[in-house]
Fold:
Amino acid sequence: MMRNMFLFLVLLLTGACQGEPATVPVTDPQIQLLIQGATEQIGKTLFYDSSYRRLDYPGGDIPIERGVCTDVVIRAFRHVDLDLQVRVHQDMRKAFSKYPRRWGLKTTDRNIDHRRVPNLQTFFKRQGKALPITQNSADYRAGDVVTWNVSNGLAHIGMVSNYKSSDGQRLLIVHNIGAGAQMEDVLFEFEITGHYRYFP
Structure:
């Protein structure tokens, strides 16, 4: 109850809603935990910080008050005991040539590999989790992961929540695009480059 009230206040203060936001029901316990793991970052992750840091392994994370867009997804998945740091690192060790080479790396780096959007896209595709990209809001479910190219050409990632937009037509996205973890109506704001559903 307190968590829901806190989330409502955050949404109200950030202008994401004019009243208590409507939700769609989520019955799958894993999806419930996944969404909880994303929404609980709102009000805690306050800054966008893309600096390189050495991380523990497994379970490595930067301080909760900081992060980038990928950290929203990574932290959400850890809520369901799925460590993308480990999963991506293990898959990259098996199939390094399948992953993007845009950073000039010659081997894996478990401090940063999972925090790069193109690597997460590759990982999700290789796990068979990719879905068609559409402009139909009904195709995007709570707990889905979406990637975009934003206006400055950078790759971006976020998670679909179970909270509806003010007009009820879309689900809000939990992401960090520069001002910390936020929940916003941005599903079709940018060019969608990937749509993934880890749990059926």
In short: Strands lie at 47-48, 66-67, 145-149, 155-164, 171-175, 182-184, 191-196. Confidence is low (pLDDT under 50) at residues 1-6, 8-17. The helical segments are 2-13, 29-39, 69-78, 84-94, 117-126. The chain is about 25% helix and 15% strand.
